């Protein structure tokens, strides 16, 4: 290319995209060039930076203004920005601002170039002097100020507040809320006749979108500054902010993001990430920690978990941020409420009591035992949330279950945190429900003699109800897979009990039926009176065949009906439920006890429900252990009326 165009010193030239961006082509972005893009040969970023560095120091106001316009436009490109910053261009711009000699469009384009250069995140915001901050703040505090200058000044102050804790306090000392309110009231006006928005004191109209963006930016800036100055005066609040930034960095690996991109983009990213972290206040999460207890203790616990159990922390945050909104477990809110709960359980902050004899040796096995205790419990909370398939509306219910899990594990007085964690693994949500049910049934009232007698009286009625259900189910019938010595084939047979419970009808089918099969279509019959026994499992003749015992699942579903001398009707149930129904039903027909797990479960459920219904009217009434005594016989029966 150099030979064809006879250009010497090729390093002084570069290619630029010939569109509104005017970005330089580099090795990093050359793959982003789209087919059909027009490229322009121009001076290199370094040469352009050198030229503009000289031009913005011109003694001619017109030449200086044109140079500043070109600088503001060129500074959007990071390649040029790097070269200009290497020439100490940021220092030159700050000196021009601090001198106070420029005003109007000169000052506006100077600040615009400064904002564009700083948005690349190359230079730290901590490098600026107090004089520069005071000068920028003075533009905001003035009641009459060019709108463009005001907008750029607010953007600079906002970036200082967002990116530097030292600059934040300095900005807070310079800006007064009273000076911001008039700007908000008079920044925009609607020009109804032209159906456009015009900025007050601006010589040229701007379109609706630009005006709206300007208005939103300024409103957000005012609110942010007011919120920071009203609630962040305590140095401890800045510590909260630093920890929250660290939590965000660890969770989303955003080491270099705080100083990159535009201000609006960063604010949007912060809000999005704080929502993923589960904070209630997505704009300023520090507000979530104002409640005492737990206050900063919750934030310290979260930071410890993020640093010392990083994999578990990242997994919990990302796992919940990728779920549907209604099923996500908010890590921030959960951590705050969990810390508060742990303080209540361990009576943190309360004075020692001589009457308390609780001692937990596990807290003496680790230097940071409370933080480790929190780490175990926050993982338990997330696990329980998933087991309960909870939504945000179930938050308090989940916390109650977690509290019960922790209390039950602590009752066993584990000697170490590992033992405590192991105990929690055995206390799943399902196990807690079983324990609750068992405890309700084992309460004093349920173990009293009258209650036990009532249970014994009700139990035969419940068993008869279960028996009728099993027989009705046998009358509906079930489709079974055909047993074959060859490889598995899709052949079926159907079996059902007659309505009078005296005959089993069965027969082969070509395909699996969609509904009940009528009795008439089943060719074979087996009278119930001929059935001698019901055989299950490995004792079934069709399970004694070679290779059959290798299939444990089939073994658990196999049963046979023995009739006549040595004749069998062999079954393999489609699932465990059907196996229990048929074995229970056949035993009931033979007058034998129904012993399946399904029957035991049904008995417990139905008996519990019936007991609760019958005792409903006796709630809060003391049930006596023994019936009242029978009075003595009277001395005579003269009070009896004689009808004869």
Write a brief structural summary.
InterPro entries: ARM-like (IPR011989), ARM-type_fold (IPR016024), ELMO_ARM (IPR024574), ELMO_dom (IPR006816), ELMO_domain-containing (IPR050868), PH-like_dom_sf (IPR011993), PH_domain (IPR001849). The protein is an alpha+beta fold and 644 residues long.
General description of the model:
- The structure is a single chain.
- With 644 residues, this protein is α+β, with helices and mostly antiparallel strands.
- Mean pLDDT is 77; it is low at 185-236.
- The strands form 4 sheets. It has a 4-stranded antiparallel β-sheet. The chain has a 3-stranded antiparallel β-sheet with strand order 9-10-11.
- Helix 5 packs antiparallel against helix 6 and helix 16 crosses helix 17.
- The protein contains 24 helices and 11 strands.
- The protein has helices at 2-5, 45-55, 61-74, 78-86, 89-99, 105-118, 130-141, 147-163, 165-174, 177-186, 208-231, 235-252, 263-276, 296-308, 310-321, 331-346, 369-387, 395-411, 417-425, 429-441, 449-476, 552-557, 576-589, 597-614, and strands spanning 13-17, 39-43, 188-191, 196-199, 478-481, 492-497, 503-509, 524-527, 531-536, 558-563, 567-572.
- It starts with a helix and ends in a 30-residue tail after the last helix.
- One of its GO terms (biological process) is phagocytosis.
- InterPro entries: ARM-like, ARM-type_fold, ELMO_ARM, ELMO_dom, ELMO_domain-containing, PH-like_dom_sf, PH_domain.
- Keywords: Apoptosis, Phagocytosis, SH3-binding.
Keywords:
644 residues, alpha+beta, four-stranded antiparallel β-sheet, three-stranded antiparallel β-sheet, 24 helices, 52% helix, ELMO_dom
């Amino acid at each position: 290319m150099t030979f064809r165009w006879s250009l010497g010193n090729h390093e002084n030239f570069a290619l630029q995209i010939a569109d509104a961006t005017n970005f330089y082509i580099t090795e990093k972005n050359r793959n982003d060039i789209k087919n059909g893009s027009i490229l322009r040969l121009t001076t290199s970023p370094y040469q352009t930076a050198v030229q503009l560095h000289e031009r913005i120091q011109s003694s001619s106001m017109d030449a200086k203004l044109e140079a500043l316009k070109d600088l503001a436009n060129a500074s959007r490109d990071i390649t040029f920005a790097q070269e200009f910053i290497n020439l100490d261009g940021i220092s030159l711009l700050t000196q021009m601002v601090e001198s106070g000699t420029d005003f109007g469009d000169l000052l506006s384009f100077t600040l615009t170039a400064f904002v564009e250069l700083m948005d690349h995140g190359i230079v730290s915001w901590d490098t600026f002097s107090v004089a520069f901050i005071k000068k920028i703040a003075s533009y905001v505090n003035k009641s009459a100020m060019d709108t463009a200058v005001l907008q750029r000044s607010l953007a600079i102050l906002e970036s200082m507040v967002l990116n530097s804790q030292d600059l934040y306090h300095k900005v807070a000392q310079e800006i007064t809320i009273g000076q911001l309110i008039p700007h908000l009231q008079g920044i925009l006006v609607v020009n109804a006749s032209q159906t456009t928005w015009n900025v007050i004191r601006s010589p040229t109209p701007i379109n609706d979108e630009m005006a709206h963006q300007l208005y939103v930016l300024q409103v957000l800036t005012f609110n942010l500054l007011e919120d920071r100055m009203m609630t962040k005066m305590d140095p401890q609040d800045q510590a909260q902010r630093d920890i929250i930034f660290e939590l965000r960095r660890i969770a989303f690996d955003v080491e270099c993001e705080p100083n990159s991109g535009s201000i609006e983009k960063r604010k949007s990213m912060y809000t999005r990430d704080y929502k993923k972290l589960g904070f209630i206040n997505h704009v300023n999460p520090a507000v979530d920690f104002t409640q005492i207890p737990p206050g900063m203790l919750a934030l310290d616990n979260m930071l410890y978990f993020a640093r010392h159990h990083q994999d578990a922390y990242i997994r919990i945050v990302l796992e919940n941020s990728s779920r549907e909104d209604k099923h996500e477990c908010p890590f921030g809110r959960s951590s705050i409420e969990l810390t508060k709960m742990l303080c209540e359980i361990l009576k943190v902050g309360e004075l020692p009591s001589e009457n308390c004899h609780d001692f937990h040796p596990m807290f003496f096995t680790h230097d940071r035992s409370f933080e480790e205790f929190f780490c175990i419990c926050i993982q338990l909370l997330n696990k329980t949330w998933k087991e309960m398939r909870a939504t945000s509306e179930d938050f308090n219910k989940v916390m109650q279950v977690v509290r019960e899990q922790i209390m039950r594990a602590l009752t066993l007085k584990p000697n170490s945190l590992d033992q405590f964690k192991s105990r929690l693994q055995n206390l799943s949500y399902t196990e807690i429900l079983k324990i609750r049910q068992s405890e309700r049934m084992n309460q004093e009232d349920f173990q009293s003699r009258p209650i036990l007698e009532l249970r014994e009286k009700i139990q035969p009625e419940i068993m008869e109800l279960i028996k009728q259900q099993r027989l009705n189910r046998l009358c509906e019938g079930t489709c079974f897979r055909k047993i074959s010595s060859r490889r598995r084939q899709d052949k079926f047979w159907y079996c059902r009990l007659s309505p009078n419970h005296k005959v089993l009808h069965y027969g082969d089918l070509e395909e699996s039926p969609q509904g009940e099969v009528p009795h008439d279509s089943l060719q074979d019959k087996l009278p119930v009176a001929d059935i001698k026994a019901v055989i299950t499992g490995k004792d079934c003749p069709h399970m004694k065949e070679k290779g059959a015992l290798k299939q444990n699942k089939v073994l658990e579903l196999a049963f046979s009906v023995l009739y006549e001398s040595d004749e069998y009707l062999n079954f393999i149930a489609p699932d465990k439920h059907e196996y229990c129904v048929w074995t229970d039903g056949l035993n009931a027909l033979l007058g034998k006890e129904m012993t399946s797990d399904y029957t035991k479960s049904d008995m417990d459920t139905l008996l519990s429900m019936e007991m609760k219904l019958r005792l409903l009217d006796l709630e809060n009434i003391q049930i006596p252990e023994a019936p009242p005594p029978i009075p003595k016989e009277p001395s005579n029966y003269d009070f009896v009326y004689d009808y004869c």
